[in-house]
Specification:
Layout: E1 6-14, E2 18-25, E3 30-37, H1 45-60, E4 69-75, E5 78-84, H2 91-96, H3 101-120, E6 123-124, E7 133-135, E8 141-143, E9 150-151, H4 184-199, H5 209-218, H6 232-239, H7 250-262, H8 298-326, H9 342-349, H10 366-382, H11 394-404, H12 409-431, H13 435-448, H14 453-462, H15 469-484
Helix pairs in contact: 3-4, 3-7, 4-6, 6-10, 8-12, 8-15, 10-11, 11-12, 12-13, 12-14, 13-14
Amino acid sequence: MEIPGYEIIRAIGVGGMATAYLATQASLGRQVVLKVLDTTNDVTSKNVERFMNEARIVASLRHPNIITIYDVGRQGDLIYISMEYIEGGDLKARMADGIAAHEALDIIARIASALDCAHKSGVIHRDVKPANILFRKDGTPLLTDFGIAKKLTIDHDLTSTGIFLGSPNYMAPEQAEDVPIDGRADIYSLGIILYEMLTGNKPYQADSVVDIILKHRQGALPRLPNDLRMLEPLLYLMIAKKPKDRFRDAESLLHYMRDMEQRAALRPAAPGRAAAIGETTGATSRMPTWTSARQDSPKKTRIHSALLLLLVVAAAGFGMLQYYARRLADAPIRPVEGLLPRVYVEAALSNGQAGTHGAAPLTPASDDVRKALIWLAQKSLDDYRLVAPPNDNAYFYFSRLRDIDPESRLAEDGFKRIAERFAVLAEKEMARSDERAARNYVTIGLQLDPNNEALRELRELTRPRAEGLFDTIIRALAGNDKATS
């Protein structure tokens, strides 16, 4: 076999549809891997399309943890891809020697970052497994083999023959069904890899492919050893049976792991033994800084927001009084474009449709999931993701918490705290002289907590009237003066 510009050294791997060769690129004198499509059998147009799709997809992705594609082309009947030669072996081989917990989390974070890049480009990998995670000499993990990835925008399905693609041991339950697949399937596979790195075993094992698939769909969520139980909330949000119960995307996964680092949930072990979760040592944590996480702490963000709000209110106070004296026209309460997407505001105004109350309980391990939901709800509150985006907002997480425990005081208090946030938003819109936006926020907040005094007062201040609005504001201010005198 000859490909101009390359000197074939030896075959280094054979896959289902291609053979990999170690070669030298003559023009640059560098070693590369040539993946050559097997044309000795009956190669269909779909196989060619799938093979070329790998090259186009990976070549378009730019990320330090995604393998580099150099060239793609045809030579006669041969179709080939030239890519980076990786000498550090794969994750499957590394797991045979054992991996410490902090190292496992570092690998998961870096591959999750690579998946985040791919998913945001409209690409799902569909076959995330240890053999497809390679290592450079410096230990950098790389995601490779996008041969069965597909663009989310492609209309035709490369698996329309009915044969699913992917490795059953790491395949998400929905991949064995005739349903659309999104990036959460890759997150599931990555979660299975995390479990295997932490324990040395696959979570589901059986004698046949069918039985393995059934266990992934119906089997109980696996438990971690006692010294690793702290990682179960992370694991379960990655490998939940239903996609809607997993992390919304890889960025959310990275955000969660960043918080783990900040809370020092994991410290590296001393040389020669496994890492213990929550262990107190004098060593400095080698946990990486997750690249997609927010840099400002929630506390600092709240302080800055409060100071900004005070300045805005103080500067606009007098102008606001004059504004309300002039605004006499009545206007119906309706969603405000540019503040929240219309569908989310309408859902909130319908008293609960933005949440998931009444959905199936999150089982098993509801205690661990409850802790994760509380954390996610608090982060959503801090970021003012109150009722949007879907499935990643405070109302959604507190509703799921209520589904697990209908008597949960934390859930009920959570709805009240969301209402308080809407009061803050309403005050900011008043300071900006946007009465209609303020009324919308007040209305949504009162749906969540009808007894919130701030919202009730704001409702009076923002109520549209034909006359007397100025007097209402003056009376409200006078009442506040009396209360503080």
